[in-house]
Amino acid sequence: MERSNDQLAQNLIQAMHDWGIQECCMAPGSRNAPLLLTLIQRKEFKLYFWPEERSAAFFALGRIKAAGLPVAVVTTSGTAAGELLPATMEAYYSGLPLLLITADRPRRYRGSGAPQSAEQVGLFGCYTSFAQDLERGESVCVDDWEQTAPAHVNVCFEEPKKEVASFDLPFKPSTYQKRTPSFNVSLVEEEFYSFWSKTQFPFVIVGALDEKYREAAVNWLSFLQAPVYLEATSGIREEARLAHLRISRANGLWEFAQRCNYPIDGVLRIGGVPTVRLWRDLEDGEGKYRIYNLSELPFSGLSWSKINPVDLNAFFSWGLQQTLAQPPPFSTWKAADERWQKAVQELYFEEPRAEPSMVHHLSRLIPPYSKVYLGNSLPIREWDLAAVFEKKNFAVAASRGVNGIDGQISTFLGFSSSDVQNWGLVGDLTALYDLAGPWISSQLDMCVNLAIINNGGGQIFQPMFGHDLFLNQHQLNFKSFASFWNWDYEYWERVPSKGECLKGFRLIEIVPDNQATQRFNRKLGAL
User: Fold this and answer.
1) Which of 84, 327, 317, 286 is closest to 202 using CA atoms?
2) Alpha helices in 76-210 (DSSP H)
3) How far apart are the C-alpha atoms of 285 and 33, rounded to whole Å?
4) Quick check: helix, strand or coil at residue 263?
5) Superfamily of structural domain 2-156
6) Distance (Å, rounded) from C-alpha 123 to C-alpha 133?
7) Secondary structure element (H or E) that encloses residue 206, with its range
8) How far apart, in whole angstroms, are the C-alpha atoms of residue 253 and residue 116?
9) Which of 162, 200, 363, 507 has the smallest set of CB atoms within 10 Å of its CB?
């Protein structure tokens, strides 16, 4: 029986090698011991060890964002496998190649209710594009995972023993070839041409963009000459070549454009589903706006619009060769937007302790070429509003936020790198939701600054509902949290004009004045 475990583990590790996996997040347990003990003998894999599976999976998402490669997370059996579901949902909607390897008891135990046995086959449902259940004598169907969504391999091990065979065999030559998703480019080209020709006043929203698409996107937007809203995760928000097209005001955008004689009748979305509120406002715009979605992912982001995924570089290359109607001038709107932006800039110094002002000053403080991870729900929106437009070459990332605030600290730490400063900006409830996240810090050597905005609850709901119960109000602080994980701690009621973190881990508790924030928002609404 023990020999069958060795062979099963070796077959799985060969498949991981074929898939190009170089990093594994391990949550050790008795059931996955055969795989773990075999893996640690291989120098080809970087291993991270966690006691808690949920955070391990979110950390793996961060590693995928950082390296652009698939990452595996390995668990024992039972509820440990279920802990992977939240990160798997996030990975599915973000198109991230997360490999879930769940150890299991042999198939003969299924339905028995025996200890450490559960019904793990099909556990992740539609959120995996490939799933396989393995037992002794079986091999992974390597060619069946396209790496455009998560995959699940459930591995049935016999009762493990302490001994494990030495695994010094070389990897077999890989026969796996990563497949490029098939896109119907001609269909997208035809649909886009129809959309553009029927739209008189187009507006563009750019969501999260993979780095490989950004230069082509800048050239394409420069060619279109349409007004555009650029989210931080697009990676081109601060691009000087687009400054003359950039609209910075998101709140009340539709009415504002109308008043400036640019009645938007069509919206072109590029990249990921936007997080900015103005996108959600379009849900009620069926029949009023035409929507066209350009993305490599199959999600339209609205209940009434559709999408045909496309390779963006191929589409942009085609588009630059076309003769497209130029949108009408929007100089009145652009001038009004610049006046609005100037007034908002004055608010940052008039109300320095308001939450958006503190985000603005933090963006000024963070040094160029830093990695910046933005948490949902308020921080990412406040960064879009308030961060400087100076080109500081930040590498900005965020999770799509299927539920808003899950696993954000863990994902931030996975996204971080040892060669730059790393800054994470999250809310207080988000931090409370991932208190196990800093576990991994003892296995990392880097400069990490985790800024937690502690406004005493979920203030994003403050203007939305008429009852305080939605706020989850509290009087907690995070000094003991930092101490528990042996992180440095700082308490900021104002953002300093300069500062640095050369090495190590620092938790910065940013405490805005909620009354100042309310004044800021009232003044902002009046602009």
Assistant:
1) 327
2) 79-82, 85-94, 185-198
3) 54
4) coil
5) Thiamin diphosphate (ThDP)-binding fold, Pyr/PP domains (3.40.50.970)
6) 11
7) strand 202-206
8) 54
9) 162
Can you give the pTM of this predicted structure? Answer: 0.94
Mark out the alpha helices in 168-310 (DSSP H runs). Answer: 185-198, 211-224, 253-259, 277-281
The answer to whether 319 and 223 have CB atoms below 8 angstroms apart is: yes
Work out the angle at residue 274's Cα, subtended by the Cα atoms of residues 73 and 221, and round it to the nearest 5 degrees: 115
Crossing angle of helices 53-67 and 85-94, rounded to 10°:
20
Give the dihedral of Cα atoms 92, 94, 97, 100; nearest 10 deg. Answer: -40
Q: Are 167 and 35 in contact (CB under 8 A)?
A: no
Q: Percent of the chain at pLDDT above 70?
A: 94
Neighbours of 122 (CB within 10 A): 11
User: What is the rounded distance in angstroms from the CA atom of residue 383 to the CA atom of residue 10?
Assistant: 46
Using CA atoms, how far apart are residues 257 and 377, in angstroms rounded to an integer? 26
Give the CA distances from residue 304 to residues 118, 264, 277, 282, 285, in Å, rounded to whole numbers and listed in that order: 39, 18, 17, 10, 9
Residues belonging to the chain: 527
- The CATH number of the domain covering residues in 351-526: 3.40.50.970
Angstrom distance (rounded) from CA 307 to CA 41: 46
User: For the chain, what are the domain ranges?
Assistant: 2-156, 185-333, 351-526
| Average pLDDT score over residue span 135-140 | 90
Q: What is the mean pLDDT of residues 394-399?
A: 96
Taking residue 349's Cβ as centre, other Cβ atoms within 10 Å add up to 10
Query: Residue 164 above 60 pLDDT?
Result: no
Q: Which strands, in side-by-side order, build the sheet including 71-75? A: 46-49, 23-26, 71-75, 98-104, 151-156, 130-134
Cβ atoms of 93 and 299 closer than 8 Å: yes
Helix orientation angle between 331-350 and 378-386, rounded to the nearest 10 degrees = 110
Give how far Cα 184 sits from Cα of 188, 210, 217, Å. 7, 20, 19
**Mind listing the pLDDT tens digit for each residue in 331-368?**
999 999 999 999 999 999 999 999 999 999 999 999 99
Q: Where are the beta strands (DSSP E) in 84-144?
A: 98-104, 130-134
Closest to 380 (Cα-Cα) out of 217, 516, 221, 250: 250
CATH topology of domain 185-333: Rossmann fold (3.40.50)
Measure the CA–CA gap between 310 and 367, rounded to whole angstroms. 35
**Separation CA 237–CA 377 (nearest Å):** 19
Give the pLDDT band of residue 266 (cuts 50, 70, 90).
very high
Please report, as a single letter, which amino acid is at residue 390.
Answer: E
pLDDT of residue 319: 87
d(CA 229, CA 28): 45
- Structure tokens given for 54: 């949920």
Mean of the per-residue pLDDT values of the chain = 91
CA distance 94 to 207: 12
Would you say the CATH fold of 185-333 matches that of 2-156?
yes
Distance CA 66, CA 210 (A): 11
Task: Note the Cα 101 to chain centre separation in Å.
Answer: 22
